[in-house]
Records
---
Amino acid sequence: MSFRWVYAEPEQKESVHDLQQELKIPPEVARLLAIRGINSFPKARSFFRSGVTDLHDPFLMRDMDAAALRLCKAIRNSEKVVIYGDYDVDGTTATSILYTFLKSFGLETEYYIPHRFKEGYGINPDGIKFALEKNADLIVSVDCGITAIEEAKYAKEQGLDLVICDHHNVGDELPDAVAVLDPKRPDCDYPFDGLSGAGVGFKLVQGVIRKLGLSETLAFKYLDLVAISIASDIVPIVGENRILMREGLSMINSNPRTGLKELLKLIKMPVGSVSTSGIVFSIGPRINAAGRMGDATAAVELMIAEDEVSAARHARQLEKINIERRSTDSRTMKEAMAMLEDEYNVDELSSMVLHHPDWHLGVIGIVASRLVDSYYRPAIMLSTVEGKIKGSARSVKGFDIYEALKECDDLLEQFGGHEFAAGLTLEKKNLEEFRERIDKIANRKLKENDFEPELMVDTNLNLERVNMKFWKLLSQFEPFGPGNLRPVFVSENVCIEGVPTIVGNGHLKMKVRQENSAVFDAIGFNMHEYLPKLRNCDQQKIDVAYVLEENHWNGKRTIQMRLKDIHVEAES
C-alpha cells in the first residue's frame, strides 16, 4: 500500500533557525525539535536532560493527601487490602506495583482482576464480594473505577473503604470514595494529565512513601513496570511520561525484576537491548495475551514473582497463551478478509461491519485494527456472546467512530470509547440496519482522499548528512512513542545499488545511496509488492520514506533505513 506523504510543519518556523544557532545542531535536527513544540533553549534542555528530580510533586494531584493517608493507616494498622485492577497491560502492571509495594510492608494483600468475558471492564459487585470474603478493610482500584458510581456506593454500604486510581475521562459524577485520583478530573490541578493507570498508581506510591518519611528513591524500583504500561497503553511519551519511560527502560536494561528477566530470557531478548518498540511488539502482547484470552492472573503472577522457578513457569504460561492468541488472531483475520472478498465489494464500502457468532472477543479489536491498516476504512468486528452481539470498532483519521456510534444509539444497548476505538453491544435484529447506517455516516463524513492512507513526514534528509554523529544526536530523542514518534525522513532521487531482493516472509531488502553519500542497507517489512516496480524502474531513481535504526551485526554497528514507503518516478 502506497501512502500520501504529508509533511509536518512547526508552529513557529523561525524557531528552527534559532535552535540551530543556539544548540549548534543540523537544521534537520532543529526542525525535529520545533515540530515537537520544542522551540527554545530551555525547552530543549528539559527535553534532553530531564530526570527523576523533574517529576511532579504527587501532592499536586487532587485527593492525593487523603489517598496517601488512608494507605499509611492501612500500613500502620496491618489492615487487609485488595488491589482491584484491569485485565490489560496497564491494569496488570498497576496491580503488580501496588500489590508488591504493600506486601513489602508485610500487609496481607490480595488482588482481583475481573474476567474479561464473564465480568467485563471495571469494578463490579463480584469483586467487592471477593474483598468482603477476604475480610478486607480497603480496596484500591487501579486503571479503573472512575465511573463506578453504584459500585462505590455498594462498597461503602458494606463498610469497605475505597481509593480509586484511574486515568480515564471523568463523567458527570465522581464515585463516593475516600479518594479519587485521576489527573483528568476537571478540578485537579496536576500539571500532566497523560499518565497511564500504572503511572497514577506510581504517584500514589510516591505519596505514601513521603508521608511515611521514607527515602523517595524507594518508589523508583517500580519504574520498569511503569515503563511497560506507558509503552503498551499508547499514552503520550512527553513530559512526565518521557522521564518515567526513560528511567524505566534503563531499569529493564540493567536490573529487571525476576519475572521480566525470565520473560526476556524466554523470548531471547537480551537484557540491555530492550526499547519502547520491544515492549510494544514483544513484551506487552505477551502480558496482554492472558487478559485477552480471558483471565489475566498469569500476567500479574509473572510480575510479582520473587523466585526464578515460579517466574519461569509463569513466563512459559504466558508464551503458551500468546501462541494461542496469535493463532486465533491469524485465523480470525483470514476469515474476515475472506468474508470481505466473498460477500462485499470493498471499493463500494465506506466502512466494514463484519459479524461471525464464533469470533473470539479477545482478538477482534486487533483484527479490526489490521483491517483498517489493510483497507483504510473504519472497521467494526462483531461476535455473539450469550445471545448479544458484541464487538470492537477501529477508525481512520477524519472519522470519529465514537460520534458515529452516538448517531446509532437507538440501535445499540451500550457503547463507549473515543475517536479511533470503541466497543459496542447490540441485539441481532438491529445488525443489518446498524451496518447500513454506519456505512451511510462514513460515506457522508469521509472525503475521497480520506480513504488514502497518509504518512506523516518530519523532514527531507540528504543521506550525505547521515553518519554516527548524526545518529548520536537522533538517538537523544528517545524514548519514542505517541507525541514523540520516531522521526520519518524522506530522501529524494535515491539510487539503488545492486539488485533488490526478498528476504524472510515477504520483506524487501536493498542497498541505496544518494549522490555522494555512503551506501545504506534498507529493509521494508512486508513490502514485497514493490519489487517488480523497483526492478522495472529505468534509472533506478526513487524517493524513499523511512526511519533510521542502528543495526548490530558481528560486533559492528551500522545505520540502516527501515522503509515506510517508496515512490517510484514512473508513478508520478
---
Amino acid sequence: MMKSEPVKPATNRRTPAGFLGKAVSLLMIAGSLFHIYTGGFGLLSTMSQRSLHLLFMLVPAIFLYGAAQKEYKKIPWYDILLGSLVLAACLYLFFTWPRQTMRVGDPGMLDLFFGAVLILAVLEGARRTAGNALAGIATLMVLYCYFGKYLPGGLAHRGYSVTRIISFFSSTAEGIFGVPLGVSASLIVLFVVFGSVLNATGGGQFFIDATYSIAGKYRGGTAKTGVVASALMGMISGSPIANVVTTGTFTIPLMKRGGFSPNLSSAICAIASAGGILMPPVMGAAAFIMAEYLSMSYGQVVLAAIIPSVLFYLSIFVIVDLEAVKQGLVGEEKSALPVLSKVMASGWHLLIPIIALVTFLMMKWSASKAVFWSIALLVIVSTFKKATRLNKDKVIKTLLDGAKESIPIAVACATAGLIVGTLALTGLGVKFSSSVIALSGGSKMLGLIMAMLASLVLGMGMPATAVYILSASLLAPPLIKLGIAPISAHFFIFYFSVISCITPPVALTAYAAAGLAGTDPNKAGWTAFYYGILAYIIPYIFVYDPVLLWQGSPLSIFLAFITAFIGIFGIGIALEGYVDRHISIVQRLIFFAGGIMALIPHLLLSIAGIAMMVILYVSLRKGGKQVNKQVSQ
C-alpha cells in the first residue's frame, strides 16, 4: 500500500528573497526586539507604541502574504509600493500623532492621505492573513459610517463625512489603534515570542517527551500525550492553527503509530489545540482582554476559567481512553518510551520560567512585565544545558518565528478596531443589542442560541482573539441585558469564538491537522466537531449556574465539579457507543441524558442522572461478563 502524502492546501504565503527578503527579515527581528523592550520598560506613549507596532506587523504582512492563492517567484511591484506606503504612513503617524489628535475634526491633506493608506492596507492585510470574512465585515462597517444615512429604519444614522471617517479611524485610539491593537502591542506579541523561545530551547519536545514517558505505557497513551502537549503549548501560543502546526508535527505521527487512524489523530489534535486557548493561565491573551472588559482582576478571570477548561480536556481523555478500549489498543513497551528521569534531567530547568510566569501574574504584576522577565529568565536557564542553549542562529530564528506568528493576530486586531470603532461612532452596538433582545423576545435561551450562532459564524476563518473582541462588543451587552451575569456572558461568547475553529463547514484547525495526517479535511472537521461536542454544552451550563466559573461557596463548587466529572464519562460513552461491547442507540441516549443531568449544577438532578448511568453501566458490564463466560464455555 502506498503511503499517503500530506495534503498541501493552496496558500498565499511566500518567502521574499534577495535584498527585499533580508530587509523584511531585519524588520521582523527589529519588531520582536521592540516588543520585548517595550514590554520590559514601556517608555513610549500609547499612540507611539501602537503606530510602531502596526509598522512592524503590517509591513511584513504585505510582503509575506500575497494577494492571491498562488506561488510567487518574486514580489510584485504593487506590493512593494503598498508596503512602502504603509511604512511611511506609520512613521508619519509616529512623529505627528499629537498634532493629529488635537485636530481630529480638521486634518491636513497628508493626514488624510496616510490615514486612507492605513485603513485600506489594514483591510487588505486582513484579507490576506485572515481571509475574506473579517476583511468583508470590516469593509461593510467602514462603508456603513458613510452610507448609514441612506439606510431605512433603525439602521440609519446621521452619517459622517469621508474626512471625519478617515481621521477617526486612523489618528485616534478608537479605530485601528484601539484596545484590540493595544492588547496586541503590549501583550500578544510578547507571549508569542515567549512561546517561540520555549520552542527554540526544546521546550515543546520536552513537554512531549515528559508526557509520553508517563502516559505512553497506558492504552491510548500516544493520543493522551498529544492532548497534554497541545494543552501546554496552546495556552501560550494563542493560535489553534499555530498550535496544530507546532505540536501536531510530532504528536500526529505518534498517534498514528499508536494505532489511531489518521482521521481520528487529526481530530484529536485539532480539538486539543483549540482548547489550549481555553486553558489558564494565559488563554492566548484573551484573559487580559476579558479582564479589561469586565473591570476584573486577571486572577479572577483565570480562576473562573479553570473548571470549564479542565472538564473540556477530561472529556478528550475519556474519548481517547474509550476509543483505545474499543480498538483493543495497548500501551507502548517500557523500553520504547523515553525515561522520565532522563527527560527531566535534560529539561527540568525549562519549567522554571513557566512557573515564574504564573507566579508573576498571580502576584498581580502587569502582564507585559511578567512575560518580559519570564523571557529573560528562560534565556538565562537555557544556558544550564548545552542542548537547550541558544546560539546566534537560534536567536535569529526565534525572533523571526515570534514575528511571523504574531502578524496574523496583530492585523486581525487592527481590523477588529475598525469594527469596534464603527459600533462606537454610529451607535450600531446599542441598536444591535436592542435588536437581539427584541428578536429573542426576552428569552434567555433564544438569546444564547443567537449569540452562539453569531460567534460561530464570525469565527469561520477569523482568529479566535479577534472573534472574541468583536463578539464581546456586539453580543455581550444584549446577553447581560437578558439577565445573564457579565462573566458568564463573556465566557459564553469566548468559548464559541474559540471552538468555531473546529466547527464545520469551515473548521480551519481540523483542516490544518488533516494536512499533517494525510487525511480528508472535511471528514476530520466533522469528527472534531462530534468528539468536541462537550465544548458546545459547557457554556450553557455555566450561564444558568455560574458555579462552574468558580462563583459560589467552596462546597457547591466542589460538588459541581465532581458531578460534572462523572457526567463527562456518560457523555463519552454515548459518543463512543461502547461499554465492553457496542451498545444500542437507546442506551447511548440514556448515557447522554444522564451525563447532561450530572453536568447541571443541581444536586438532586445530578444524583438522578448519575444513578441512571450507574444502573445502566452495571447491567451492561454484568451482561458482558455473562456473554464472555458463555463464549469461554
